[in-house]
Every structure is written in structure tokens, then in C-alpha cells.
């Protein structure tokens, strides 16, 4: 098994932890606080688990490895957009404050590296 597949499972596990445990099962209540700050308190309890379910779908998409380049682009876009919004509207609620953006950019780069550089060339022909 190449590093590409190992890294894919690592990336998927981040989406699973964030989506299932932090948002859907509410193990990290600050995620609902972030959603409340950005989208409104009245919608946070309903939308936070839905966002978590969406993140679980991303994890499944990563694991099934269909249209993986599109999947990587969607992930990178979501991570960057989400973190820019959080940087300006909810930085005080983030685990590492405004430094969270650095970790988000590193994660986005890791996804890019895994999909567009590390992925074996023969697999890229069918992406």
C-alpha cells in the first residue's frame, strides 16, 4: 500500500472526528458555539449536526476514492473558506485562536500534496 492510501485514510479520519464526534455527537460544544456566532444562535443546534453529517459524507467520498481530484478541491475550498470566516467572526472560539488558520492551511496543503503530487500517476489518469 502506498503512502497515498495511508494519507487518504488519515485525511478521512480528520473529517470523521470533526464531523461525527465534534459536531454530530456534540463532544466539543464549542463547534456549536462557532456555528451560532456565524449563522445565528437560533439555527446552531439544528445546523451543527447537519454540518457534521456533511463532513462524514466527505470522509466517505475520500475513502471510496471516486473523482478524487474533485474531492480534494472541495476539501481545500471548504477548509480555506471556513477558516477565513472563523478567523474574522469566531477566532476567540477556535482551539488555537487565530493560529488555527496556520494549521488549516497546512492541512489544505497536505490534501493538495497527497492528491496532486503523491498520488501515483497511473491513478491520476482515471481521476
Characterization of this structure:
About 80% of the residues lie in helices and about 0% in strands. The protein is globular. The mean pLDDT is about 95. The protein contains six helices and no strands. The protein is mainly alpha-helical and about 130 residues long.
The ordered string of helix (H) and strand (E) elements is HHHHHH
Shape: globular
Q: Sketch the major β-sheet.
A: none
- The total strand number stands at 0
Number of helices: 6
Helicity, in percent?
over 70%
Beta-strand portion reads under 5%
Radius of gyration from the alpha-carbon trace, in angstroms: 15 Å
Through-space gap between termini: 18 Å
Helix/strand class? mainly alpha
Q: Return residue spans where pLDDT drops below 50 for at least 5 consecutive residues.
A: none
Q: Give the averaged pLDDT, no decimals.
A: 94
